[in-house]
Amino acid sequence: MPGPHKIYLANPKLLRTIVPTGAYFQTESTLAKAEIEIVTNVINGRWGAAYTNYEHEKIGIELGHLAPEKVAALIAGLPTSFEDPRQQVVYELSCTLAAARVVPVGLFRRAQNLVGDAGIVDVTALMGWFTAACLTLMAYDVPSDAVGLDQGRGSHSRPMRTTMFHGNDAPRLSLVDPDNSTDEVAEAFKLLPVINVFRTMANAETLYPTYIAYVALLFKQLALDAALERMIVLRVARRSDCYYAWRQNVVVARSVGVIDEQITPSRTSGDFTCLAMTLEVS
């Protein structure tokens, strides 16, 4: 079973209710497949769930027959356009709703004329369905190329995020092996611990040695207090929605004295003038 359905198995009553909705959009929707994929990629891009974005970028191209550059724009939230009037109005409507903006009367009337009230409802319901799918996948931290399901636990246990899916994160760049790199890159690897983020960056052979020399300076004692430095890093990781950087630096932050009461506001949207950016916690 694909995507969030593997997680929905933990709640059979919900599964029996929600699966027919997904099936409807596969076989009975008033929207064409291309239109469905326009809506799907817009809302997936809005929520940023790795699995749905990875899957529907491919589906939009292969089954929706959309141009790759247009699918990429839908996911990235970049402007694009479609020659087909129905596709264009579906795109404009879904973008407006995903941005939580008022649907102008002119856009609404064009949508009514082109896809009808049934089509408008299909767009809104589809966005709601994929919002639920995205949030479910994000809650369980499902990676982009996840496969399989570990069903070895009891039916009432909460599936562990790290064991529910067994696959890989579909890396777009290979990890450079220090032992098989150029002499200049190999020397640069000696400046810092050989972790995956640096092995990925090393694919840029010309830039990497210079860049890593700069990064190495940041690993030395700065004028900032070590704890305050880590809280700044955590704030940047949170604002960038970079889970890798967040996860790594929570560990480092705790090792230099940052406590959970300081970390939590950085992860949510707490009062940054208080706990998140001060070393004084009562």
Low-confidence stretches: 148-170, 270-282
Q: What global shape is seen?
A: elongated
| Estimated radius of gyration | 23 Å
Class derived from helix and strand content:
mainly alpha
Count of separate structural domains: 3
- Head-to-tail CA distance between termini: 49 Å
**What does the oligomeric state look like here?**
single chain
Question: What's the quick description here?
Answer:
This protein is 59% helix and 0% strand. The protein is built from 13 helices and no strands. The longest helix is centred in the middle third of the chain and has 35 residues, at 105-139.
Describe this structure in words.
The protein has three domains: 5-139, Up-down Bundle (AhpD-like), CATH 1.20.1290.10; 178-218, no CATH class; 226-277, no CATH class. Helix content is 59%, strand content 0%. It contains 13 helices and no strands. The protein is elongated and about 65 Å long.
Set out the fold topology:
Elements: H1 5-8, H2 12-27, H3 33-47, H4 50-62, H5 68-76, H6 85-98, H7 105-139, H8 183-189, H9 196-201, H10 208-218, H11 226-239, H12 243-255, H13 260-267
Helix pairs in contact: 3-4, 3-5, 3-6, 3-7, 4-5, 6-7, 8-10, 11-12, 11-13
Features:
mainly alpha; 3 domains; 282 residues; elongated; disordered C terminus; single chain; AhpD-like
